[in-house]
Structure formats: structure tokens, C-alpha cells
């Protein structure tokens, strides 16, 4: 396994490869980000970004989404996977935002995870991106890349991957590391078969 120092160097090299690394879900506020992240489960950000402009134009607030006809919500997001269940989740989430949090997106992980459709990964994304709280959201890219690069052991669970990254990286790198790992996994080291040696070499080429 890579040491703490080696892990930092890898993340910094990814930063040189992808200086523009950031959240790619289109949003204008914490509410839109929260809904977009819920919709992104098992679906690409590109697919989500195609449906959210119409969804948010029609239902720009938790109150309006809460009151929206379920059939209309489903029709607006039907091109993404699991759209029926996701429509129910985002309506229920909007209801809880209104009834439990005064229409505002909560800032703590515990409160975020109390919302329908929100797990630890989604909560971490919202905390990090919307509220600039240090957090590492482990999605499929992050898990796969950290194991391929021997930052984390193959048998590590998603929670363990998060904990290992938090231990190996300084807190001020947590949030940006998440985006850099995703970009590296999305645009350099994909899940499909490829020459992984090239990925490692590109990292080495970008290390100082």
C-alpha cells in the first residue's frame, strides 16, 4: 500500500492532470445539488444534467417539488435509470426539507442522512460541494481507482476506503481529492479494459 506521503503525491499529480476537477452536476444552490446527487445514483452526471434544468424550472423549491404531481416528476426524469423510485425519493426528500428543516438543506451528515434517498456518499458530496466542509465521497470511481493504485486494499469496504483516505490525506485535501480521483477514473483510468500502465506512467510524469 502507498504511504501517506506517496498518496498525497498521487493526489497532487492528479491535480496537475485535471486542474479543472470539480463537481460536474449542474446546480445553482444546495437544494438543486442535493436533488441532482440523489438522481445521479447508478446514472451518469451527463444524463442527470439533461433532465434537471426542466425539473428545476418547474419545481425550483422544496415546497414546489413536494407538491408536484408524481407523474409529472417522473415524466421529467424518465430518461435516467430507476426514475420511478427516484421521483418518489426526491418528492419525499423535499417534503422532509419543508417539514423538518424549514425548507433549507441541513449542513450536518446526520441530518442529511435522515433524508429519503440520501446515504453517506450523497451527504458527503453535499457537505463538501455546497457547504465547503472537508469530506470525501466514495463513489465507484473513487473506490476503483484507490484500489488499482494501491492506496487502499482490494478487500476494503466503501466506508473503509473513506477512512483510509481521511487518514492518509491532510484535511485540506479531502474535498478536492474526491474530485481528482473521479476525474482520473472517468477520463484516464476507466473501468473498461485499458492499458493501466499508461495511467501509472501519466501519474509519474506529473509528480514533482
Give the number of domains.
Answer: 2
Look at the structure and name the CATH superfamily of the largest domain: Hypothetical protein, domain 2
Over the alpha carbons, how many angstroms does the gyration radius reach?
18 Å
Global shape: elongated
If you had to describe this structure to a student in words, what would you say it looks like?
There is one protein chain. By secondary structure, the chain is an all-alpha fold. It has 2 domains: 4-21 and 135-205, Helix-hairpin-Helix base-excision DNA repair enzymes (C-terminal) (Endonuclease Iii, domain 2), CATH 1.10.1670.10; 30-131, Hypothetical protein, domain 2 (Endonuclease III, domain 1), CATH 1.10.340.30. It contains 12 helices and no strands. The chain has helices at residues 4-17, 30-39, 45-58, 62-67, 70-77, 83-101, 109-113, 120-131, 140-148, 158-168, 174-187, 196-205. The longest helix has 19 residues, at 83-101.
Quick take:
The chain has 208 residues and is mainly α. It is 63% helix and 0% strand. The protein has helices at residues 4-17, 30-39, 45-58, 62-67, 70-77, 83-101, 109-113, 120-131, 140-148, 158-168, 174-187, 196-205.
